[in-house]
Design a protein that fits this description.
The structure is a homodimer of 407-residue chains.
Chain A (H helix, E strand, L loop, with lengths): L7 E2 L1 H12 L9 E4 L12 E2 L9 E2 L3 E4 L9 E5 L16 E5 L11 E4 L16 E4 L8 E2 L10 E3 L7 H9 L4 E4 L4 E7 L3 E2 L10 E2 L2 H11 L3 E8 L3 H11 L5 E5 L9 H5 L4 E7 L1 E2 L3 E7 L2 E6 L3 H20 L7 E6 L3 E2 L5 E8 L4 E4 L8 H6 L2 E5 L5 E2 L4 E6 L1
Parallel strand pairs in A: 1-18, 6-7, 13-16, 13-17, 14-15, 17-21, 19-24, 22-25
Antiparallel strand pairs in A: 2-12, 3-11, 4-10, 5-7, 5-8, 6-9, 18-20, 20-21, 22-28, 23-27, 24-25, 24-26, 26-28
Helix pairs in contact in A: 1-6, 3-6
Chain lengths: 407, 407
């Protein structure tokens, strides 16, 4: 029973430590090649250059008539209609003095250099194929309604960089370039252990002094959303030897251990005690909530010890683990950061980076949900954003601008 | 081969039609009860009231000493230290004139009404349990560092409303309230069919006039992210009878059919032709890209016919299907909408709602990626936001404010 003196380290300095802890997990050997759809939510492991031009050939942007622009003088002219060009066909060269009905996306015939939309033609409809017909078209500049070959990306140009998060748009681009699979960074396997004699599984009887474990669900859901593979062990009691045994059993099968609770300065700090003899440091980060943090390794496996209150857990995950995963592995997608105006005043401990929970409205204001208390899970459940009050700020007024991360 | 005259309908009017089409799928009979973690990403199907107070009992917000505030006069006093209160214990009543070491989250002993943080005590450390000791404590107002019973939510109060998206925070709250499972809206089964003679599967040889299918990957990834169960059939050619056969075979097993391509005014519009005789309407929405849209039902199954360009597909999904799913089923989570300043000028067809792609920076500016062209998949892959230019706007200047949806 003793207190350790605590010097606060900054949020940035602790994030640097988390990055240094996890960086060795990113190796060039540890890359998976996955079919595109299975790669959804992963980080790209290599730079990818376009293997072809996009579009692969000049094509029409409209349903209309492909022409040689030089054939139509100012004031327009009548042209003979030749066979139509459907999308997917390889058309013959366009004879001089003719117009070819062409569909959106269809290849421009050789010689044609412009498309007149059907709406501008007289008559403004396509003739039946095979029947002799003419059409009157207005003068049209070369290039009009033509999508040039390579106008989206040229063959050989950088298409996606290593570390890019693979969402629908990125996977769509890979498909457009003909890829069927893609090398991605692995998904880390995490052992998640919630601790505390006061904590019982939801669904169990709730005795006096006890609370239901929400950290396990809150963090496992956050980790799954971030693409991690989570192993849960159930709740560990406050007996250090029991926790140490549990960690020793599971450590060989995971890439990272995350614990909650037991890292503070109280008399019964199970994670601190279970980690005795291991290379784990317990620090006080200048952050509210989520100040007490453990970091190091247990049996060679990286360990992060988050504090025990639910909001502190979530803030620890969002401030340290999630952004470092994004930096190192390209996934999950970074939280969108925006500027917003406070709907109300707030106070903050000036020596700490305060992270409040709030609701960002479309008009750019953010309303705080609940107070600063780290036990307020109902307030958390109403929030869609984290509100940052930087170190050195003691108070902000309604209307002041803050940085907000959208959850 | 003919053109149909097209009157444009507004984005809002078309979204209303999509909502009306899908609303019958939301019935009180069709609800699943899922374990909390499996409910991640679903919409809550019922209103949930708190079955208990949170916190369930008054507890300490700090590691420190629980006291009766009336025992300590101005200027402070020395109190006898009694047995400590660990988290999870049900403590005895606090004798008058004593202080109990108490850990964060531990139940306040009956009679105690304030906590003095360990840092303010003299000595500022906990005595070894069982050894007689006293501690000098400052005067402390009743309620200090006590989390009152029900201060987050009271038993019986509304906790989460029907239709709430279940993310980590909401599931964490349900766990804190003791729930192990939760009634949620179902995940719709979607048949996704990409069409077009010009479209070939990625990985196949690419003949002249052909492009790789990116719509299938782009939309399946978007749909999976939105929690839909997707069946893909491969690419249908431009032969209407082949598409009709394929739809007829799969329709009984799905809740919704989404097609891409073949809904425009060209000469070869396979979806239009395959839907002949079914209750499907082809309309022109006042939107760019994504104007041509099909909507109706095929063999009794709701159908949405998106246009064939990749960007048009994505915009159709994001503007019509995704927001309607959120409204009706509570999932996926709504796209965050924020105001941003344009980094550059743009022009827009004044009669249409233009949707551009862009990159939102943390300083609140948004840069456009690529032009308005709906074939620009590389530009789409660089974007993190949709930029809205409302109907009636022909031009915007750099610095003008726009609504942006974060992807």
């Amino acid at each position: 029973m003793h207190r350790t003196e605590t010097r606060h380290i900054s949020v940035e300095a602790h994030r640097d430590k988390v990055r240094a802890l996890l960086a060795p997990l990113r190796t060039d050997d540890w890359v998976e090649r996955l079919p595109l759809l299975e790669a959804l939510g992963r980080g790209l492991a290599v730079d990818i250059a376009a293997p072809l031009d996009l579009p692969p050939f000049a094509n029409s942007q409209m349903d209309g008539f492909a022409i040689r622009s030089g054939d139509v003088p100012d004031g327009g002219t009548e042209l003979r209609v030749v066979a139509p060009v459907p999308a997917g066909a390889a058309p013959a060269e366009l004879p001089v003095g003719t117009a070819a009905p062409i569909m959106t996306g269809a290849m421009m015939p050789a010689g044609a250099d412009a498309v007149v939309p059907i709406e501008q033609a007289v008559p403004d409809s396509f003739p039946a194929p095979g029947e002799p017909a003419t059409v009157r078209l207005p003068a049209t500049a070369a290039g009009t309604f033509v999508r040039d070959i390579g106008s989206d990306i040229h063959s050989g140009e950088p298409a996606l960089g290593s570390g890019t998060f693979l969402g629908p748009g990125q996977l769509g681009l890979l498909a457009a370039m003909g890829f069927t699979d893609v090398p991605v960074r692995p998904s880390l396997r995490v052992l998640l252990v919630t601790t505390g004699d006061e904590v019982v599984e939801p669904g169990s009887p709730l005795g006096p002094g006890k609370i239901f474990d929400s950290n396990g669900t809150l963090l496992e859901a956050s980790m799954r959303q971030a693409g991690l593979e989570v192993t849960r062990t159930g709740i560990s009691t406050d007996r250090p030897e029991e926790l140490a045994l549990l960690l020793r059993r599971h450590a060989p099968d995971v890439d990272l251990i995350v614990t909650t609770g037991g890292v503070s300065k109280g008399a019964y700090e199970v994670v601190r005690q279970a980690m005795a003899g291991h290379d784990v440091e317990f620090t006080a980060v200048a952050m509210q909530p989520g100040g007490p943090q453990g970091i190091g390794s247990f049996d060679g496996v990286p360990v992060l010890g988050f504090p025990g209150n639910p909001v502190s857990c979530l803030v620890s995950f969002e401030m340290f683990l999630r952004p470092v995963l994004t930096e190192l592995f390209g996934a999950p997608a970074p939280r969108p950061a925006v500027r917003a105006r406070l709907a109300e005043a707030l106070t903050s401990p000036p020596g700490k980076h305060q992270v409040r929970r709030g609701t960002l409205a479309p008009d750019g204001t953010v309303r705080l949900e609940g107070g600063a208390g780290s036990h307020l899970v109902h307030a958390l459940a109403r929030s869609n954003a984290l509100v940052h009050v930087p170190e050195g700020t003691a108070a902000l007024a309604a209307g002041d601008e803050v940085e907000v991360w959208i959850l």
